[in-house]
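To whoever is on call:

I kicked off a structure prediction for a single chain this morning and the downstream step that reads the tokens threw a length-mismatch warning. I double-checked the sequence; it's 401 residues and nothing unusual in it as far as I can see. Pasting both halves so you can look.
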Amino acid sequence: MPLAIASVPSSDPHAGYLEYLRRTGRGNTAYLSAARTFFKRWPDPRQWAAEPLQVRLSAGSATRPIITFLMLHQGLRPGYDYLLERKLSSIWREVQDSPLVADLDRFMTAAADLGFTERVRFATGSQVPVRLLIQTGRRLEQLALADLAEFTAACRDRQDRTGKGHSHYLAAVNNAQRVLFHLGVLDELPRAGGPVPFAERLAQVRPPIRAAMIAYLDRKRATCRPKTVSTIATRLKHFGEFLAGIDPDLESVAALDRRQHIEPYLSSMVDAVSTKNGETITVADRSRRVLALMGFLTDITEWEWPEAPPRRLLFRDDIPKLPQTLPRYLPVDIDRRLTHVLTESRAMNWPRPPCGCNVPAGCVSGNCSTSNWTASTRSRPRELVEGPPRQAGHRADGPPR
């Protein structure tokens, strides 16, 4: 590998960028024009970093190389919200002549010593250490657990804002912490596998509410399977985080108010986004969240906990109604025999079956009402099961004449 070109932050970032393009043989007229526009609007790149996220993300393809140069060579800190929205696909090429290359090489060597595969090493290096070094502005040996915690919180904020999952970032954080521990930078290994403690899962819930929820979950562990308790924790977490957003000063579960807390929560679930697929949660998910909250409030009231609300806050009508499917009229075995008869009727050019049945009898199409279909099947059950006679006289609106 050729020796890296040491770059020194320039007092004139525009001139430094132009020199960088000349030295590396990159760029074209579009790059030069984008540079003039960018530095005319933001002579000090820190002004750009202070812009709202949507403004920072609006940079075009000819402008993004400027931002990458400023991050790697000029100490620009664009914010974790921006860094998590950009893939930094060219980072391994761009970093080779930047001040960050020595720290990244050290990290990658340590990751290889620990047995990480090449794919995992490069994925982890580009997802966590690069972003930490850019945003903190510190050397690798100066990183701390608080930096990893801040990065993890930024991933969680991104998920709440966009609905995009961040499991790959969390896995990379775990790997990065293990490598940094191996290097002696951190004095703590990542938490071992297994269930995440309730205190960690409910970290975004305000302490008074979190304490009551954790006590409730610990009590449920005595009578419920671990998977059931974990599911309850997930559903209560949504309510706790909602309370933290609308009423951060709430002191106790006993202070909950239906108009102020419960009804807004029920309304918010209509537009709630799933963290798994980024889509609006289903009616069934909403129903499960309401039932979990209702069970929590009902149980602590029956147990006479001091945290219990003084009055009932949730009612049966608050549970979202699930779509009701029509019941099957025919048993499964009869339905299959009828399907077979209908299939044969087409092959033998028999008259069209009643009600336009082209599918199993459990799905009735056409204009045949339930009452008429019932009357029809009751009047000629043998015909339905064994097939139509020679003179088909089955009518959809009643018994045969």
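Update from on-call: the warning came from a stale cache, not from the record. Cleared it. Sanity check on the structure: The first helix runs from residue 13 to 24.
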